[in-house]
Amino acid sequence: MSASYARLSESISQAKNVRIYTNKDTAYDFKLYPFGERGTYIAPELISEITDSLAAAITEQFPDFDYIVSPEPGGHTWGMLAAYKLMKPMNILRLSTELYENYEVSVRRETAYNENYIYFDGFSSGDRVLLLDDVISSGATIRCIAGQMSVMGIELVGVQAILAKGEHYKQLEADIGVPIRFLSKV
Length: 186
Known about the structure:
single chain; 7-stranded mixed beta sheet
C-alpha cells in the first residue's frame, strides 16, 4: 500500500468487525469500513484522500470511457465524487425498491450476506463505461453487473475499487475480461 494512502490504510486497520445474520442459523462476519456500504462517519480528510486517489488512479489506468457506473449502496457515493472530480457523467445502479420495480432491466445480486435486485436505466448499446465500487469481496456484485452490461451491449472498460479483499478479484478479472484495479488490498 502506498504511503499516499495513509488515512485509507488507517481506516482499514481500525475497521470494526460485525456479524450479520442472514438467517437464524447463518452468520457472516463483516468488516465495517467507514468508506464501505455500511460505514457511517467518514472524516473529511479520508473523503479527500479517497476521492483524489480514485481520480488519479482512473486517469492513469482508464483514460478512455464515456461515464462512470456505480452500484448502490456502497459504490455510488464514491462514483459520484470521482465523476465530479474527473468531470465525467455518472449512472447509478439502483437497488430494488418500489420506485424501480417497473424497470425492464434488472439483475439479481446475491452476495454472502444479502440478496436484492439492481436496476439499470439510462444506458445505450455501445456505451463505454467504467465500473466503480467501494469493496470487492467475492466479486458477486461486479460479476452480475458485468453480465447484464454484456447482454445490453455496453462495453465495460474496467473496474476500479477502493479495496479488494483477498484474491477473488483475480478470477473475476479473468472471467469478465477487463482490468480490475483498487487502491488497497487486504
